[in-house]
Design goal:
This protein is mainly α and 429 residues long. The protein folds into 3 domains: 143 residues; 161 residues, no CATH class; 64 residues, no CATH class. 59% of the residues lie in helices and 7% in strands. It contains 19 helices and 8 strands. Strands 3-5-4 form a 3-stranded antiparallel sheet. The chain has a 3-stranded mixed sheet with strand order 6-7-8, with no helix packed on it. Strands 1-2 form a two-stranded antiparallel ribbon. Strand 7, helix 19 and strand 8 form a beta-alpha-beta unit. Helix 2 runs antiparallel to helix 17 and helix 3 packs across helix 16. The longest helix is centred in the last third of the chain and has 35 residues. It is elongated. 26% of the residues are buried.
Length: 429
């Protein structure tokens, strides 16, 4: 019965944890399966910790150099370090690493609280990138569905992604300098800031950007990316009453004249901005409803996402690995406590079983066969060895010796594979 309870307690430890980790990681595995082993990081870490725990447990149990009490304490410490200790260290060091690796665009707390959403984002980014490049003809060897099914396993997709990111990184993001780039966010990107970011001189590395020309031939011309390409979405500036303050009715006619003038001006500005020799990647300008100025970048037609998304895509395998690792955090912290309890209970059951074996051996009478190995007529050196491999050297008179104690010790050594030669002085009555 106690053996059965020990087996149940073992199953309630790491085997149960591994099963739960697999279930918890299924969504991440399905979302990023094309990235191979990276999405299995959580499962792999769990299996490695289980192997460490059972190696320590098994080695100590086999050698028996330590008491069961000490074996139990060591096993508890190993379980806690493998599960709780790992995440104590991760919670200290991983946030700074993640912040540096993603330039502050992915937060540790977000991954800890909702890792499945991060997996969805990673999957959707790759699918959107593939769709854009199928639409513009950059990817045309296979069908759209084949590209989507193969995902990151498709070398053509990954080679194109690598070159696209190098271009938008080295000839885009890296070319902008302060102070204007520091104000390039949704709240501070005003028209004056935008103009500076568009027309300021920038140093580029002229990285080749693979794209399919109008004649269907792939070309590798470098691109000077605009700030709007970095943001990746059209921008709108409200030039009407909501954006410029309430205008009295008597000035509405003047506003209409201004809007006509702005439309004519934007036509010539658009022609200049569309010229890559002037500012690089084209920006398309429209005035909607006479009051809303819309600036549209060209990155979508070129097949790239905004810079932050391209940076994530370039490191998508690493992000999937971190996401898969974060998926086991909650379970590890829970099972750090569970393993302490189950390991302690197993230790108690093992100790009780050991005492019962000793008592059974001690109470068992000696057999004639066991006594017959002694030379009762002579006092010369003989060996009492009813069980392999230990033995007791006999030099004393037999009536001085405690044969029950001798037999108990040798049977115990036989049970636990201990090899030793004893002096009979240890067994005098």
């Amino acid at each position: 019965m106690k053996k059965f309870l020990q087996i149940l307690l073992h199953l309630a430890g790491f085997p149960l944890l591994i099963a739960l980790v697999v279930l918890e990681s299924l969504h991440i595995i399905e979302s990023g399966l094309s990235y191979g082993v990276m999405v299995f990081v959580g499962v792999i870490v769990t299996v490695v910790m289980a192997i460490i725990y059972y190696l320590v447990f098994g080695i100590m149990a086999k050698r028996k150099k330590k008491s069961i009490y000490r074996q139990t304490i060591v096993s508890i410490l190993v379980a806690f370090i493998c599960l709780g200790g790992l995440w104590i260290a991760a919670d200290v060091f991983l946030p700074d690493f993640l912040d540096d690796a993603t330039s502050g665009t992915i937060f540790y707390e977000d991954l800890a609280d909702d890792f499945n959403s991060r997996a969805d984002v990673n999957k959707e980014l790759l699918e959107e990138y593939i769709n854009r490049n199928v639409d513009n003809g950059n990817l045309k060897t296979l069908s759209r569905q084949q590209y989507l099914d193969e995902g990151a396993r498709n070398q053509e997709v990954m080679d194109l992604l690598k070159k696209h990111f190098e271009s938008i990184d080295m000839d885009g993001y890296a070319t902008f300098v302060g102070p204007w780039i520091d104000m390039a966010d949704d709240e501070r990107l005003t028209i004056p800031t935008l103009i500076h970011l568009i027309i300021n001189q920038r140093e580029t590395q002229d990285k080749p950007f693979p794209s399919r020309g109008e004649d269907g031939v792939m070309v590798n011309d470098p691109v000077l990316w605009s700030i709007l390409d970095m943001l990746g979405e059209p921008m709108e500036f409200d030039l009407g009453p909501d954006g410029m303050g309430v205008i009295p009715p008597q000035y509405l006619g003047t506003l209409n004249l201004m809007q006509s003038f702005i439309n004519e001006l934007l036509a010539s500005v658009t022609n200049a901005i569309e010229d890559e020799a002037v500012v690089g990647s084209p920006i398309y300008i429209m005035l909607n409803n006479g009051t809303v100025l819309t600036l549209t970048p060209s990155n979508e037609s070129r097949g790239v996402l905004k810079y932050m998304s391209m940076a994530w895509l370039d490191s998508n395998d690493l992000i999937f690995a971190i996401t898969a690792f974060m998926a086991v955090r909650r379970l590890f912290l829970i099972f750090a406590g569970v393993l302490v309890v189950t390991t302690f209970a197993i230790g108690l059951l093992r100790d009780d079983s050991k005492e019962e074996k000793k008592k059974a051996v001690k109470d068992r009478p000696l057999s004639d066969t066991e006594l017959s190995v002694l030379d009762r007529d002579n006092l010369k050196v003989e060996y009492f060895r009813p069980y392999d491999p230990s033995q007791i050297v006999i030099t004393q008179s037999l009536n001085k010796l405690d044969f029950n104690k001798m037999n108990t010790q040798l049977l115990y050594d036989s049970q636990y594979k201990v090899t030793k030669q004893y002096s009979d002085e240890e067994f005098i009555k």
